[in-house]
Design goal:
heterodimer, A: alpha/beta, eight-stranded mixed sheet, B: alpha/beta, Rossmann fold, 2 domains, 16 helices, binds adenosine-5'-triphosphate, binds adenosine-5'-diphosphate, binds magnesium ion
Chain lengths: 321, 370
């Protein structure tokens, strides 16, 4: 991941729902900031997923400093659509109809219009340096929609602009496309869990992104169960039948563990080992399907991954990987 | 008897809700299987079973109506039985149109409409709404003692409750007309400002979608004329059914912060809507067994004492990690219960294999109903 962290301008993080997109996006942002880059991490689904990870109650459309070298932004989809419509002289009607209704109509009649605005905002932040003015970033990390929706999301400007051969909509779509299609500037990373459905969906996601010409840089397998026993796991079955050797070691060290306690310890280790084996098998399948694309593993944190400490821990793993 | 056993014995409808990936589909299937094996005519309406589970339930057939599940150990004939179906939202929507259209001509016009096609296959909320339509249809048929409903993998469990209102509002043609009608079609009574705004809107939509689609939208509403009230009425009936004491919502969550928070929101919303919350399933929990504490000094001696000692020290460390994890999970579950009092909870451990066949469903059931 290191290369991407140091070179990309836009890092798009997608993945199956619940696999850790938001957490990994925060971790990647902190990791890149640790390498001395000025980073903006942005979410676009109006879910306030990033705030807690940086110890904040909420984030909004103002870019706020949330950690050393990291700013965060919650692009509000409703708000940006409102702004856009106001620009088209649409405000009076908006007052007459319920906003929810209007929003649903737009989504049904012109899916993608809302996405155009969100992608546009991300593009603006990622390319600020090319234009004079302050507040430029070296890297924008995007906590993107899940795999099933990410291609239409990123391609929304293109879809909408298909109807416009010239003009401002077309112009912007072209520039967004230039950024997104450039493997030198943009990298898409997918998060995955070592479970059956997420592995399948990740492989489908990689294929769909590539098909759309988007530069996929790697996959982060999140919440992988660590293997502390390695080759010694082979002894567990025997020790479950006869914990004698462990009882001997316990007695010699003065640890008061009876056979029942030793049986519990061995049983728990075997359960965990089964989990490790299952995850290994799935990760092997994943690796084979990725065909050389980098795959980084993140450990499962015992306390969940709800705050700044955990994000820092994950950032450490991402830099090391 | 766990709170779920009571539900599976007496409820008419059980709805499994929760955020994505927590085990809704597995829980719904396991509840249905258990009820069938306890003498009830049961049907599970599933949405997105994993491929192998679908095969195990005989759902690889393309059908949008219930089929009997054939598996070893299932009661071959009476009193209990298990049927399953996988919801095809597009087909359900088409069927609803066909069933409630005035005549075949109206149905054909709607089905051929491009806006309808987009609406019926992509609009967020349609799947939830169609699950309710199907639920209503099956409930009316009185073929089953118990219907177990899985819900779509939405980001929020609340979407299921909001879907009918959302779709109804969208289908309400009056508001639509106002939105897209050319200025001259709006009566004189309207404000001039509105005319202007409408024209701007029309232009905007035209620009963004192409004028063709706008025409399709208009045609859709012309064709849909007269059907809106029926939609609204049925949504109301399903809502009433969901509120009925013979229905039970089962909220499924994993013991992580995000899923439990979602479960709490959902429980609050059910209470506010006076909907019957049956039980909370906390799925995929970790448990540590009883092991007496081993002081640091003894652990140090173990580490210094050859391969067996080191292995034992490592096993103790794994156990500590498991204890920490289990304690953190239980703390989060307790936090939730503090916020949602009087909620029956069933905890299910992380099983050592995916739940992908009838045997897996029985294993899950053993915990759900133990
Ligand atoms: N490495 C980890 N160890 C432990 N828990 C983790 C880890 N990564 C993520 N989690 C937990 O998993 C849950 C889902 O993570 P997150 O919200 O980042 O996923 P997401 O893909 O953004 O989800 P959504 O699709 O809902 O946006 C959260 O409760 C998070 O705290
Ligand atoms: N208690 C459990 N132990 C192990 N695996 C489980 C458990 N419950 C569910 N699973 C697995 O987790 C995955 C997601 O479950 P599923 O029921 O499809 O979730 P949902 O319908 O909420 O998205 C499936 O692969 C399923 O087999
Ligand atoms: Mg997220
Ligand atoms: Mg499901």
């Amino acid at each position: 991941m290191l290369e991407v962290l140091e070179q990309a301008r836009l890092l798009v993080v997608t993945g199956k729902g619940g696999t850790g997109k938001t957490t990994v996006a925060a971790g990647l942002a902190v990791a890149a900031a640790g390498r001395g880059r000025r980073v903006l991490v942005a979410e676009v689904e109006g879910r306030q997923g990033l705030a807690g990870l940086f110890g904040r109650a909420a984030l909004d459309h103002r870019e706020a400093r949330v950690a050393e070298g990291v700013h965060a932004l919650a692009v509000d989809p409703d708000e940006s659509l409102r702004e856009y419509l106001a620009r088209y002289g649409f405000a009076p009607l908006a007052r007459l109809l319920s906003w929810a209704h209007l929003n649903r109509f737009i989504t049904a009649a012109a899916p993608g219009l809302g996405d155009v605005l969100l992608v546009g905002k991300v593009w603006e932040a990622a390319t600020r340096e090319e234009r004079p003015g302050s507040g430029a970033y070296d890297l924008v990390v995007l906590d993107a929609p899940p795999t099933g929706r990410v291609v239409p999301f990123l391609r929304a400007p293109e879809t909408v602009a298909e109807l416009a051969r010239v003009g401002p909509i077309r112009n912007q779509a072209d520039r967004v496309r230039d950024l997104l299609d450039d493997p030198g500037r943009t990298a898409v990373v997918l998060t995955c869990l070592p479970e059956e459905l997420p592995v399948t969906e990740t492989l489908e996601g990689v294929a769909a992104l590539r098909e759309a010409g988007l530069p996929v840089a790697g996959v982060v397998a999140n919440q992988v169960t660590g293997d502390q026993l390695g080759g010694r796991a082979g002894r567990l079955a025997g020790l479950a039948r006869d914990p004698g050797p462990l009882a001997g070691a316990a007695a010699a060290a003065g640890a008061e563990l009876d056979r029942a306690a030793l049986g519990t310890l061995v049983g728990e280790a075997r359960d965990r080992q089964r989990q490790v084996t299952r995850e290994r098998r799935l990760l092997k399948e994943l690796r084979a399907g990725l065909d050389g694309l980098p795959l980084v593993e993140l450990p499962s944190l015992a306390d969940g991954a709800g705050g700044p400490d955990e994000v820092r821990a994950l950032a450490g793993h991402l830099v090391a990987a | 008897m766990t709170p779920l056993a009571e539900l599976a014995r007496s409820a008419r409808i059980v709805v499994c809700c929760g955020s994505g990936g927590v085990g809704k589909t597995s829980t719904a299937a396991a509840v249905a299987l258990w009820a069938a094996e306890h003498g009830r005519r049961t049907c599970v309406l599933t949405i997105d079973p994993a491929r192998r589970l679908a095969q195990a339930l005989g759902l690889d057939l393309l059908s949008n109506s219930p089929r009997p599940v054939k598996a070893k150990g299932l009661p071959a004939r009476g009193p209990g039985s298990l049927d399953a179906m996988m919801l095809d939202m597009r087909r359900t929507f088409d069927e609803v149109i066909e069933r409630y259209a005035r005549d075949a001509d109206q149905a054909d016009r709607i089905l051929a409409n491009r806006f309808y096609q987009r609406l019926s296959s992509t609009l967020a909320g349609t799947q939830e709404y169609m699950a309710m339509e199907k639920l209503y249809e099956l409930h009316e048929s009185q073929r089953y003692d118990l219907l177990v409903v899985d819900t779509p993998p939405t980001r929020s469990a609340l979407d299921f409750l909001d879907a009918p209102d959302n779709l109804n509002e969208l289908l309400d043609a009056r508001a639509f007309r106002l939105l897209i009608a050319p200025a001259q079609r709006i009566g004189r009574g309207y404000l001039r400002g509105l005319n202007l705004a409408t024209t701007a809107m029309t232009k905007m939509v035209r620009r963004v979608t192409g004028s063709e689609l706008l025409a399709e939208v208009g045609e859709f509403f012309a064709a849909f004329e007269g059907m809106y009230d029926g939609f609204k009425e049925r949504a109301g009936l399903v809502y009433d059914q969901l509120k009925h004491p013979s229905t039970a919502f089962v909220v499924v969550a994993t013991p992580d912060g995000a899923a439990l928070r979602e479960a709490a929101y959902f429980a609050g919303r059910l209470a506010a809507d006076r909907m019957p919350l049956g039980a909370l399933v906390v799925n995929r929990i970790h448990q540590a067994g009883p092991v007496p504490p081993v002081p640091a000094a003894a652990r140090k001696r173990l580490r210094a004492d050859g391969a067996d000692g080191r292995l034992l020290a490592d096993l103790l460390e794994l156990h500590d990690g498991l204890e920490t994890l289990a304690a953190a999970e239980q703390r989060r579950v307790r936090d939730l219960l503090d916020r949602v009092p009087n909620l029956g909870v069933v905890q299910v451990p992380l099983l050592s294999d995916d739940v992908h066949d009838v045997a897996g469903l029985r294993r899950l059931g053993a915990h759900l109903f133990a």
